[in-house]
């Protein structure tokens, strides 16, 4: 027989793939078959999910055990709870079983509707505080059985925090496959036991309402501080009383909030007070909350202060400068310490040591020191929240040298005049340590010299220019380079010297002619040094000056300045006009379109052209009709797109009269008819047909007298013809002209064709 076994569950369980398994089992010695069919079911503990009070927890005032009813495991067919297999009930995290040694008596009962009582098990044990186990010593062989646990007791290990819930699981080697829970345990809050401050009153001036985040909020909790939903007990009161009064006077007053309301969103019940304030200055006030709920203990607040003053407990200043003076850009030796206090007496006895919320801000007192000086501290915006009533600032320094500096301390909340002044101190220039841009580059257009050229100085840490004892060669390079393609910096000269000279530019490197070839947003320049020479003590680190980076600036593309000039404003058909283009700014190698339009509105491209190294381009063009011309430039990284001026060249038609006598006077007989033909150019299908005027003159009394005019439109070949009969003797001449069209100017009059009629 070829019988296969197939795994169906966790380690130690085997499933049977063939119906012949029972026959195989009967042929094997008992104890060698370890098979789980996986079809057994679980009846979870009664009441699952079972709620257990936090008041029963192991660390509660009176811990207690909660008995469990069940669980039970029921086979659907014999042998599903296998011989030597174990069922190990494991408590969820945060819960524990009562161990046998501590008096618990867990048990397991075998039964079931048709159980033959052939199944047996070993003792039910609690090998640890989190497990209860039983081992099957003989499995059922004929009919299914049921194993029911009893006498198991459980409790939470600690009374907080909430929420806490979890499933009892089986970590043993036998039992129903896929069963993840033998019952759910949930710890809930205990009974109301005490009050707790959700929000504490805190430091604020006298007769000033606490800010919203410091208005007292009091809630009712169990012994562990777990929130309670006491909606069914509403309404009940929570009262506040001032129980510690510095100086013996002053009770806190509030405008509302003494009756508790339910916070529906969280299911909690709390008293939210508003408009609370203290009438008098004092240190270490305490208020106590009490309630009408029976058995709920009162709660005292944290001590809090009602100050009215600030003071510099440690005055700012001092340093390595001559006379122990602070140096520019270098942190003071004595860092300012500002203390919140009640009254202006000494800082030891009147310090608001309970204050942890007041925010103190430092600034330079207006009119002291050097105008434009900047104070910086390690703390952002020079602001610091007090700890134990004091704000100990660090890293405070002033950049510019000057005398008689004073700092002002202000606070939120504000106490008194809210402008507390330090003693005066001086800041002197320190040793040279870095380069500084004293004039930032500005007004940059691609390929054009900056309108504001950079000036770099040798300075101390605060930016005070070192005018004696140090010199260096300064070089500029591009730092951030947003150009596409990358910009290239050129200056005249490329390197300049910052030296300790006298006068306006002492200690400075003044550049000129600096420019960047391509536009971009966010360029920076970096100034660095070589050949640093320092006199004794003149440099913080001999031979070393830190580089400087300029402020970011934009290199714009200048507007294209394009001129277009024709060689002639009027030409005759067949002639050439030379169109000269000139880019006045950044014009080298620029590609542009030369365009033409008959009406000055509808433009077409005549040619794509490129300027030479000087920004010039010339193009010889033979137009057919009158045209407007312009240049269109699409733009590049160093030049904004633009269009030139519009110019116009008029094209005269040509009109050739035939026959021609080539200047001679032809003699003909009276009544001779001659066909005169004028050829007009241009004559294109898309152009309007030109009208030719033939005129005839005869000399009468020595004066040439107009006789006739004939207008004829040219045909598709550009020809206009008229036959004239010379019926009167005398001297005659004939001439012709092409009249203007919408697209061409008139031609000039043809030569006179002279005739003598006999």
Description:
- Helix content is 1%, strand content 41%.
- It contains 1 helix and 66 strands.
- The strands form 19 sheets. Strands 51, 53, 54, 56, 57 and 58 form a 6-stranded mixed β-sheet that branches. Strands 7, 10, 11, 12 and 16 form a 5-stranded antiparallel β-sheet that branches.
- A hairpin with a 2-residue loop joins strand 62 and strand 63 (703-713).
Strand and helix layout:
Blueprint: E1 5-6, E2 15-16, H1 21-27, E3 41-43, E4 50-53, E5 66-67, E6 72-74, E7 86-90, E8 95-97, E9 107-111, E10 120-121, E11 125-128, E12 131-138, E13 146-150, E14 153-156, E15 164-167, E16 169-170, E17 184-188, E18 194-199, E19 217-221, E20 238-244, E21 261-263, E22 268-272, E23 282-291, E24 299-300, E25 304-306, E26 309-314, E27 326-327, E28 337-341, E29 359-364, E30 375-376, E31 383-385, E32 390-392, E33 397-398, E34 402-405, E35 407-412, E36 420-421, E37 425-428, E38 434-439, E39 444-445, E40 455-459, E41 470-478, E42 489-490, E43 495-498, E44 508-510, E45 515-516, E46 520-523, E47 525-534, E48 548-549, E49 553-556, E50 562-566, E51 570-572, E52 577-583, E53 591-597, E54 604-610, E55 616-621, E56 627-633, E57 642-643, E58 647-652, E59 654-658, E60 665-668, E61 672-681, E62 691-700, E63 703-713, E64 719-726, E65 730-738, E66 753-757
Parallel strand pairs: 4-17, 27-37, 39-49, 51-58, 60-66
Antiparallel strand pairs: 1-2, 3-6, 5-14, 6-13, 7-12, 7-16, 8-14, 9-13, 10-12, 11-12, 15-17, 18-19, 19-22, 20-23, 21-22, 23-24, 23-25, 26-28, 28-32, 29-31, 29-35, 30-33, 34-37, 35-36, 38-40, 40-44, 41-43, 41-47, 42-45, 46-49, 47-48, 50-52, 52-55, 53-54, 53-56, 56-57, 56-58, 59-61, 61-64, 62-63, ...
